[in-house]
């Protein structure tokens, strides 16, 4: 069988070392600062298993499932403190709500 039980899928996930791991805090261009709540296998319309990141927005609690590979939305690590300070001081009001939240989160203004 080509389908693996979830424990086997979890072992493969650990070996492959996906870009983001469970509990990571990352930035998703759609829902902003979020936590990776899970990396799980879901089945597509053709019955093919695909690995997904389960994400939960720290801003408003929304959840999203984004394919680990070939996703169309930007997923990235949070900006560093220096970048956050620079963005806070230049054009902060012109940035999206998600970007403003990220800047404040990185600078410790939001827990």
In terms of DSSP E residues, the strand content is 25-35%
Number of DSSP helical runs: 3
Cα radius of gyration in angstroms: 16 Å
Find the structural class using helix and strand composition. Answer: alpha+beta
Biggest sheet strand order reads: 4-3-2-1-5
Topology, number of strands: 5
Query: What does the largest sheet look like?
Result: 5 strands, antiparallel
3D shape: elongated
User: How much helix is in the residues?
Assistant: 25-40%
Order of helices and strands: HEEEEEHH
How confident overall, as mean pLDDT? 86
Oligomer: single chain
Low-confidence stretches: 1-15
Terminal-residue CA separation? 45 Å
Secondary structure elements and pairings:
Blueprint: H1 6-16, E1 25-28, E2 32-43, E3 49-57, E4 63-67, E5 75-77, H2 81-89, H3 97-106
Antiparallel strand pairs: 1-2, 1-5, 2-3, 3-4
Helix pairs in contact: 2-3
Could you explain how this protein is built, in words?
This protein is an alpha+beta fold and 111 residues long. The protein is built from three helices and five strands, in the order αβββββαα. It has helices at residues 6-16, 81-89, 97-106, and strands at residues 25-28, 32-43, 49-57, 63-67, 75-77. A five-stranded antiparallel sheet has the order 4-3-2-1-5. β2 and β3 (49-57) form a beta hairpin. α2 (81-89) crosses α3 (97-106).
Give a brief rundown of this model:
The protein contains 3 helices and 5 strands.
Keywords:
single chain, about 110 residues, alpha+beta, 5-stranded antiparallel beta sheet, 5 strands, elongated
């Amino acid at each position: 069988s080509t389908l693996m039980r979830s424990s086997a899928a979890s072992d493969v996930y650990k070996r492959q070392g996906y870009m983001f791991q469970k509990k990571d805090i990352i930035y998703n261009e759609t829902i902003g600062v979020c936590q990776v709540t899970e990396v799980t296998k879901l089945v597509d319309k053709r019955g093919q298993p695909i690995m997904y990141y389960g994400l939960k927005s720290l801003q408003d609690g929304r959840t999203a499932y984004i394919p680990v590979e070939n996703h169309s939305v930007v997923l990235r690590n949070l900006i560093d403190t220096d970048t956050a300070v620079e963005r806070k001081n230049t054009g902060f009001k012109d940035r999206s709500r998600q970007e403003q939240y990220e800047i404040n989160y990185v600078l410790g203004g939001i827990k």
